[in-house]
Amino acid sequence: MWIFAKAGFLSIVQHRDQPDMLMVRARVKGDIEHFFPSAKVIRMEDADYLYRTILPRNTVAAVIAKTVDAINYCGAHGTSFKSIVDKRRAPFYLNVWDTMAEMQDRLNV
């Protein structure tokens, strides 16, 4: 699962050997810590995502639910991009938005 949020981008997958645990991954230093301040984050130079941690599934679910509950912006006409904490992320998020809009156009024919 990919989470694009105001304060960061996370990739969340089930742990390969422990189904009750999730691996939370990030590409930018500090993104995991924003959502999970007490997590032990490791940097893996040879991995597709540089940063990762392993957390209980219920912990991750609670934090993501809290993040969803805290949404306080609308998405009409791109206003959601104005809410990004680190404005340097806006062009990257917009590229994802454009790619998904293209997918919508191509797959809904």
What does this structure look like?
The chain is of the alpha+beta class and 109 residues long. It has 2 domains: 1-72, no CATH class; 74-109. 33% of the residues lie in helices and 23% in strands. The chain is built from 3 helices and 5 strands. The chain has helices spanning 31-35, 57-69, 90-107, and strands at residues 2-5, 8-14, 21-26, 42-43, 51-56. Strands 1-2-3-5-4 form a 5-stranded antiparallel β-sheet. Strand 2 (8-14) and strand 3 form a beta hairpin. The longest helix has 18 residues, at 90-107. The two termini are 26 Å apart. The mean pLDDT is 92.
Strand order of the largest sheet: 1-2-3-5-4
Helix fraction by DSSP (H/I, runs of at least 4): 25-40%
Could you tell me the strand content as a percent range? 15-25%
Principal-axis shape: globular
Give the low-pLDDT segments.
none
Number of helices: 3
Main beta-sheet annotation: 5 strands, antiparallel
Averaged pLDDT: 92
Radius of gyration: 15 Å
Measure the end-to-end span.
Answer: 26 Å
Determine the structural class based on helices, strands and strand pairing: alpha+beta
